[in-house]
Amino acid sequence: DAGVIQSPRHEVTEMGQEVTLRCKPISGHNSLFWYRQTMMRGLELLIYFNNNVPIDDSGMPEDRFSAKMPNASFSTLKIQPSEPRDSAVYFCASSDNRGIREQYFGPGTRLTVT
Amino acid sequence: QKEVEQNSGPLSVPEGAIASLNCTYSDRGSQSFFWYRQYSGKSPELIMFIYSNGDKEDGRFTAQLNKASQYVSLLIRDSQPSDSATYLCAVYSGSARQLTFGSGTQLTVLP
């Protein structure tokens, strides 16, 4: 069974450019989470969706960040314009919102903004 | 005060020893508790979960939960160098409807 799929795995871009990160959750999971991880701040929740609806976006750092989930099998996280301080590893995770709510993580996208 | 606290380490143990990782949490309404292992450059991997007071064993791993003390721990018996990683404690609260992660404990098992 395929796990959470993320693309691209690595992204290097110049400051000011638009960056789009993509995620396909595990089939049947109805909650999807976007996290950012840095050495300084650890793992931070940016936003999560339940049944394709954004539930909590309080972790989104600023208006440059936006996330969408147009259907149950796809989500995007967009940064426009990107800045060097956005450099981090971005993880997508999914869970079934029944039971104990365990989350399964994708491989991550390592973003470098120069 | 952080909602989920872990000792950042690093924690070093010799091969074959028991590694003990600890986590405390502040939300008394927390319902489920998770341990994730993260190797350097990789994504967090779920290794254990527990939601009832007491111990839960899975192979060399034992999770322990004490809700009265708001404390959860992970014991790794017969530690192996391949256990060297960062271990993240995560807590699910129904009120928050999301996992809250600790900052992680870096474990090194010395051959």
Note the main sheet of chain A: 7 strands, mixed
Average of per-residue pLDDT values of chain B: 92
Q: Count up the helices of chain B.
A: 0
Question: β content of chain B, as a range?
Answer: over 45%
Helix content of chain A: under 10%
Order of helices and strands of chain A: EEEEEEEEEEE
- Shape designation of chain A: globular
Shape of chain B: globular
The strand count of chain A comes to 11
| Straight-line distance between termini of chain B | 36 Å
Q: Estimate the mean pLDDT confidence of chain A.
A: 94
Question: How far apart are the first and last residues' alpha carbons of chain A, in Å?
Answer: 37 Å
Structural class by secondary-structure content of chain B: mainly beta
- Low-pLDDT parts of chain A are none
Beta-strand segment tally of chain B: 11
Task: Explain what the structure shows.
The complex is a heterodimer of chains A (114) and B (111). Chain A has 114 residues and is mostly beta strands. Helix content of chain A is 0%, strand content 54%. Chain A contains no helices and eleven strands. In chain A, the strands form two sheets. In chain A, strands 2, 4, 5, 6, 9, 10 and 11 form a seven-stranded mixed beta sheet that branches. Chain A has a four-stranded antiparallel beta sheet with strand order 1-3-8-7, with no helix packed on it. Chain A is globular. Chain B is mostly beta strands. Chain B has strands at 4-6, 11-14, 19-25, 30-38, 45-50, 54-58, 61-66, 71-76, 85-93, 98-101, 105-110. In chain B, strands 2, 4, 5, 9, 10 and 11 form a six-stranded mixed beta sheet that branches. In chain B, strand 4 and strand 5 form a beta hairpin. The radius of gyration of chain B is 13 Å and the shape is globular. The relative contact order of chain B is 0.35. The mean pLDDT of chain B is 92. Chain A binds chain B through residues 33, 42-43, 45, 48, 50, 55-56, 91, 100-108, and chain B through 31-32, 34, 36, 42-46, 49, 51, 88, 90, 92, 97-99, 101, 103-104.
